[in-house]
Amino acid sequence: MIINSLLDTDLYKLTMMQGVLHQFPWAEVEYEFNCRDDSIDLSPVVDTVAAEIDHLCTLRFTPEELNYLGDLRFLKKDFIQFLRLFHLQRDYIHVKSEDGKFKLGIKGPWLHTILFEVPVLAIVNEVYFSNIVPHPNFDTGRGKLFDKIALVKAANAENLGFSFSDFGTRRRFSRAWQEHIIAVLKKALPRNFIGTSNVYFARKFDLTPIGTMAHEWIMAAQALGPRLVDSQKFALEHWAQEYRGDLGIALSDTVGFEAFLSDFDMYFAKLFDGCRHDSGDPFHWGDRLIAHYRRLKVSPQIKRAIFSDGLSFDKAIELARYFNGRIQTAFGIGTNLTNDITEKPVQIVIKMIRCQGAPVAKISDTPGKQMCKDAEYLSYLKSVFKRKVAAGGLP
Q: What is the purpose of this protein (predicted)?
């Protein structure tokens, strides 16, 4: 089977899950699968995906895995005890073919559904590619990997301090291919390869597990907070309360970067270690972030800019070169690292669409990454934050 450990997920799912346990254990949510490429037909793999999900829902954390998680300083004892009892419930996830289209939805308590996203996306991706590419050319894949390693080694001569992590679990070609890549990178680039978002492989290869929050944390606050206009500050404040200085990278594009900066005042700028870019032009984003820190009298040289939006190694190194000496940088590379064997990777996502029965949305700074099922709510959300930005950040 494809997934054989509940650790085979991204760290930010576990860190958000702990926050949900402590602060929103009563919250009910709904997620929806979306393939951004309409030409891709996933309906032939529905039954295989369903069988893989059946298996996923039989898994539990092992004592050894729980001991590993317990050694991560930011995970608390009561959360580890909760995980001893936890397993994914099959009743909360539905996959079917409807009118010739692949349909997948998740609905239930946030605490009990949050861990579905990453392994389910990995399942869909691997099943799809095993179906259309039954005999992949791994020699070509290895050649591409060594070309990337050569790029990084050449960049080291520039003293850029270039560092990157594997962020490729959700859209990997296969679990075995991701494992091979991580093993090669750890040996070939010990100065540059600083970790992986995949907790299972971080444990197996003695790497740092990388991650903080995802869009759903800020999206859910649109329904959980006291006022929509304050939802982003509500999410950041509750994150800070949960981790007290750990995991201090703020995600900046859930309702657009302009709206983020209007909320990211001196308090948050000093409280968080830095910000993560996930949509829009990364060069413009970094320039704006540096200018924002300077305007707040915060030195950007002590802050971090994390880039994670569809990066190639060429682009990541170009960004490192551009921002060298101006702000600390690090890079999360996903699909380009773990699924470039094929010419056309599949752009699939699972995003929260409702919380507490109310619609929630991700606006993003790249139109194609916007996600909301309720056009009226999306329009209202945009207008609320547009007015706030126009008023200089005032509610």
A: Catalyzes the synthesis of beta-nicotinate D-ribonucleotide from nicotinate and 5-phospho-D-ribose 1-phosphate at the expense of ATP.
